[in-house]
């Protein structure tokens, strides 16, 4: 049967809107009748135990409140042990970033009861009638709130989302000619119901943001930089936002995806998923593997910003979400992103030590995010903005880099 005929037959029997139809070569290849198989067979993404970090924080607190009666030599030994376990942690994180771009973390210090509260509230919110959810619907002018028509690579995702910024707002550059405005503020919108949603989300965001800064410190050290090196990019503001993802059951999970294959454009994604599974990562051999849901773990991945900053040492890895016809799924990623004013380019500190040439031209993160958010909003019919659009080609590298184009 020809491709044309095949496509025609599918449309004839389709139980879903064709907007959701993933191109044949990108459809999930496993059988997805049973949601458990949707997770895949392999679960080899590294799991890293963060207890050296969490116990270091605890010890610091104890030290502050202790009367200082311990002998100084005992303290020195303890400090030495702590130092070597942090060193070991940094090595594990660096290896995972270099080899996988993805890892899970356990003993991260974020409390399970916060997660349970978030899950209960998310379930209540997404169970509301559409007209209720639509009261806080995202618009082209305000990218925060509820949305059910998100597109990835111009295919509609089988999901509903609710986005909120951890600081309450995102300040993105205005379009040219926007009544002389330089920036447009996108502000959080909170639904009336569930009435606890706002408080729970704000508590969650404080806890997960704290974890993200710790992870940023570890990644920074793994690149040979001071732990706080990257913090300046989160000043005076940032563009962190959290998404509540709801993937309803899907009658045709072999033809559609919760999120089609993509790379995250930001710096780090720190995500917690429920027990259903469906997040898959593309391995170096091209195979898709599932990330095993683990109740006490966060899934962390480095995004495009780290790929550019590290000049391709840490690659942003493709991933996708498969859905199933058996159980809805929830996930809660924090997209941990710097100030929209940040100009992103390979870091001179990292180029100097490796005697390398930069592989990317500088670009402005706020402009990039604004363009990207526009293309997630609807099918633009063309491929959306990607970092490879800023890659420097070989000829340019030989002759050195010219003036970077403005986005
Ligand atoms: O739901 C998930 O597990 C992943 C979602 C994702 O990759 C994204 O929203 O960028
Ligand atoms: Fe993603």
TrEMBL record:
Classification via PROSITE patterns: FE2OG_OXY
Domain Fe2OG dioxygenase: 238-338
Keyword annotations: Iron, Metal-binding, Oxidoreductase
Record flagged with keyword NADP: no
Metal-binding found in the keyword field: yes
Superkingdom as given in the UniProt entry: Eukaryota
Entries under SUPFAM superfamilies matching the protein: Clavaminate synthase-like (SSF51197)
Classification via Pfam families: 2OG-FeII_Oxy, DIOX_N
Annotated segments matching region Disordered: 55-83
Protein family according to the UniProt entry: Belongs to the iron/ascorbate-dependent oxidoreductase family.
Protein name: Fe2OG dioxygenase domain-containing protein
Organism: Sphagnum jensenii
């Amino acid at each position: 049967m020809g491709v044309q005929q095949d496509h025609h037959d599918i449309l004839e029997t389709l139980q879903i809107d064709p907007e959701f139809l993933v191109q044949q070569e990108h459809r999930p290849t496993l059988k997805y009748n049973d949601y458990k198989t949707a997770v895949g067979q392999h679960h080899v993404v590294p799991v890293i135990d963060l207890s050296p970090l969490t116990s270091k924080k605890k010890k610091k607190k104890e030290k502050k409140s202790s009367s200082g009666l311990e002998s100084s030599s005992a303290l020195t030994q303890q400090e030495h042990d702590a130092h070597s376990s942090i060193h070991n942690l940094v090595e594990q994180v660096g290896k995972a970033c270099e080899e996988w771009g993805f890892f899970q973390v356990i003993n991260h210090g974020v409390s399970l009861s916060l997660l349970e509260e978030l899950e209960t509230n998310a379930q209540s919110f997404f169970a509301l009638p559409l007209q209720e959810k639509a009261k806080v619907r995202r618009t082209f002018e305000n990218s925060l709130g509820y949305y059910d028509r998100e597109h990835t690579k111009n295919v509609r995702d089988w999901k509903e989302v609710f986005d909120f910024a951890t600081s309450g707002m995102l300040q993105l550059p205005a379009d040219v000619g926007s009544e002389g405005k330089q920036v447009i503020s996108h502000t959080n919108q909170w639904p009336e119901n569930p009435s606890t949603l706002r408080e729970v989300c704000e508590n969650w965001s404080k806890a997960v943001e704290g974890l993200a800064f710790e992870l940023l410190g570890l990644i920074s050290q793994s690149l040979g930089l001071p732990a706080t090196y990257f913090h300046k990019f989160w000043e005076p503001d940032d563009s962190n936002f959290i998404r509540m993802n709801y993937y309803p059951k899907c009658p045709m999970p072999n033809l559609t995806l919760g999120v089609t294959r993509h790379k995250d454009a930001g710096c780090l994604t720190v995500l917690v998923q429920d027990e259903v599974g469906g997040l898959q990562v593309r391995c170096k051999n091209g195979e898709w593997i599932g990330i095993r849901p683990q109740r006490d773990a966060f899934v962390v991945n480095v995004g495009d910003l780290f790929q550019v900053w590290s000049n391709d040492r840490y690659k942003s890895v493709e991933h996708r979400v498969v859905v199933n016809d058996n159980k809805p799924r929830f996930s809660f990623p924090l997209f941990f992103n710097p100030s929209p004013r940040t100009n992103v380019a390979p870091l001179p500190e990292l180029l100097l030590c490796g005697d390398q040439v930069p592989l990317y031209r500088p670009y402005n993160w706020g402009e990039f995010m604004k363009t990207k958010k526009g293309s997630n909003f609807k099918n633009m019919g063309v491929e959306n903005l990607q970092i490879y659009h800023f890659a420097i080609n070989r000829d340019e590298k030989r002759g050195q880099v010219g003036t970077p184009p403005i986005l």
